[in-house]
Design goal:
The complex is a heterodimer of chains A (90) and B (138). Chain A has 90 residues and is an alpha+beta fold. Helix content of chain A is 18%, strand content 30%. In chain A, the strands form two sheets. In chain A, strands 2-1-7-5-6 form a five-stranded mixed sheet, covered by helices on one side. The longest helix of chain A has 11 residues. Chain A starts with a strand and ends with a strand. In chain A, 30% of the residues are buried. With 138 residues, chain B is α/β, with parallel strands linked by helices. In chain B, helix 3 links the parallel strand 5 and strand 6. The chains are: A alpha+beta (90), B alpha/beta (138). At the A-B interface, strand 7 and strand 8 of A face strand 4, helix 2 and helix 3 of B.
Chain lengths: 90, 138
């Protein structure tokens, strides 16, 4: 199973500048683990102490994973995953 | 490095900051990909509805990036207002700045300087803030 993962500009240094990469996993946890195996270091930019970072948004298709069970969100063939840094500040 | 922006956009952003006061306001200016030109103003909702914080709603954020992709645009400017402090990036602004290619514009409408406003632009890359010149065109 291969899932397209769209990578934001700020994380492209990890993916040799590729805007989209392929990764495997039936849950978000597994997908991030596969991404990190292919692109070492990227996992740490998505997770903090084993949880999703507050100011990174990950979507499965059109839905924010926070509404799909977070790291337990299920991913199936044909889904697409988009990672976007929050636009936020004080 | 500098930001070139139209007087109409500056006025619209200042107006938005006043309309949403005391909350911070926010938005983007888009331009053709690779051009660096600030051509299309798009005010965004501050989902935090706060005088000390702003955040694009995650759903709006995804829609924005899809729209930008579909139109072969890029985010040229990300702006927000400070209502009580100067127009300089706060610690959280720096920590969460996620678009190394964007101009981060800060507008301040704090009381001490009213009716004047501050309108300043920065690059924020890897935690390093560099102020840049703003040139306003008519």
């Amino acid at each position: 199973m291969s899932i397209e993962v769209r990578i934001p500009t700020i994380l492209r240094p990890f993916t040799k500048d590729q805007k989209a990469v392929a990764a495997d996993g039936t849950s978000l946890t597994a997908l991030i683990s596969d991404l990190d195996a292919q692109y070492p270091g990227i996992g740490d930019r998505l997770l903090e102490n084993g949880a999703l970072r507050r100011f990174i948004n990950i979507y499965i298709n059109d839905e924010d994973v926070r509404f799909l069970g977070g790291l337990d969100a299920q991913i199936k063939d044909g889904d697409s995953v988009t990672i976007l840094p929050a636009v936020a500040g004080g | 490095m500098s930001l070139t922006i139209s007087r109409a956009f500056v006025d619209a952003i200042v107006e938005q900051s006043r309309a949403e006061y005391p909350d911070e306001c926010c938005g983007v200016i888009l331009g053709p990909v690779g051009s660096g030109k600030a051509e299309r103003l798009k005010p965004m909702v501050n989902a935090a509805h706060s005088p000390t914080f702003y955040e694009f709603d995650p759903k709006d954020l995804l829609a924005l990036y899809r729209e930008v992709d579909d139109r072969d645009e890029e985010i040229v400017v990300i702006y927000h207002s400070h209502t009580e402090t100067e127009a300089y990036p706060s610690r959280t602004d720096i920590a969460y700045a996620g678009e190394p290619g964007a101009h981060y514009v800060l507008v301040s409408s704090r009381k001490e300087i009213a009716p004047a406003i501050e309108f300043r632009s920065y690059r924020i890359i890897d935690g390093v803030v560099t102020e840049e010149e703003v040139s306003i065109t008519d």
